[in-house]
């Protein structure tokens, strides 16, 4: 039977739940547990923090169906915490299991937060630069182990700029198989050359095989990804350099 939480742990956990809840537009359920003691509190330390929630909607409109997060030891600035701001003195390691519905994913893709980030990338094809700028994208999760993408991009080839509509069906990478492109169809814009397709697939392969990704003050890697009909589950390992505030998330 696990040890009963100390009074100070209950106090900090309840306070953390209130702070997080106040920064969310909606929340169905939230539970935060802080493991520490009075001596460590004064020093701004905790042995671990666990967080679980369901139906979380941030002020940016991004929704998460379910999240479970566990950190190792954490060190914060106790003075800033008194004023409702959590500042990390040292980076903290965390493991998170995140569940997103199909609607959650598409809501995030159309949000101001995501749209404010760079939406274009370049490829080198036969010694020339070809660029893509995302205009619209939707994700569908119709079956277990399959993802479908539908969207439009602005394709800039030397001497030719046009809108390209497409649909694609992909099987995500698993422990036993690499990412597989099952189909790719152009629905608008007159098609795309084989050379560009090959260069694009090579770029996707590079992205998928990156050892880690960066977002704001977080470095993370996706250890596991599972697609079910209508939902996507991610197991993520992350190192948080700082806990982002809503203002930080909103800034371009």
Supply the key terms:
single chain; 252 residues; alpha+beta; Nuclear Transport Factor 2, Chain: A; 2 domains; 47% strand
What does this entry look like structurally?
It is a single chain. The chain has 252 residues and is an alpha+beta fold. It folds into 2 domains: 7-102 and 212-250, no CATH class; 112-208, Nuclear Transport Factor 2, Chain: A (Roll), CATH 3.10.450. It has 7 helices and 15 strands. The protein has helices at residues 7-22, 38-42, 78-82, 102-109, 112-115, 194-208, 246-250; strands spanning 24-26, 29-35, 45-46, 48-58, 63-71, 74-75, 92-101, 120-125, 128-140, 147-157, 160-171, 180-188, 213-215, 218-228, 231-240. A hairpin with a 2-residue loop joins strand 10 (147-157) and strand 11 (160-171). The chain is elongated, with a radius of gyration of 21 Å. The chain starts with 6 loop residues before the first helix and ends with a helix. Residues 245-252 have low confidence and may be disordered.
């Amino acid at each position: 039977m696990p040890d009963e939480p100390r009074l100070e742990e209950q106090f900090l956990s309840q306070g953390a739940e209130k702070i997080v809840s106040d920064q969310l537009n909606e929340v169905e359920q939230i539970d935060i547990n802080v493991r520490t003691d009075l001596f460590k509190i004064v020093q701004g330390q905790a042995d671990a923090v666990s967080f679980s929630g369901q139906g979380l909607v941030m002020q940016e409109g991004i929704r998460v169906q379910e999240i479970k997060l566990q950190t190792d030891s954490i060190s914060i600035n106790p003075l800033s915490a008194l004023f409702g701001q959590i500042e990390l003195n040292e980076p903290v390691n965390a493991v998170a299991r995140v569940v997103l519905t199909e609607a959650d994913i598409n809501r995030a893709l159309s949000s101001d937060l995501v749209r404010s980030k760079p939406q274009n990338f370049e490829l080198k094809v036969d010694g020339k630069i070809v660029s893509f700028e995302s205009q619209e994208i939707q994700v569908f999760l119709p079956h277990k182990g399959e993802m479908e993408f539908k969207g439009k991009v602005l394709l800039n080839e030397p001497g030719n700029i046009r809108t390209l509509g497409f649909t694609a069906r992909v099987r995500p990478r698993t422990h036993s198989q690499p990412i597989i492109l099952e189909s790719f169809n152009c629905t608008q814009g007159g098609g795309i050359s084989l050379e560009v397709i090959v260069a694009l697939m090579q770029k996707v392969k590079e992205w998928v095989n990156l050892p880690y990704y960066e977002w704001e003050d977080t470095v993370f890697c996706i250890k596991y990804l599972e697609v079910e009909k209508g939902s996507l589950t991610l197991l993520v390992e992350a190192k948080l350099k700082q806990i982002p505030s809503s203002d930080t998330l909103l800034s371009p």
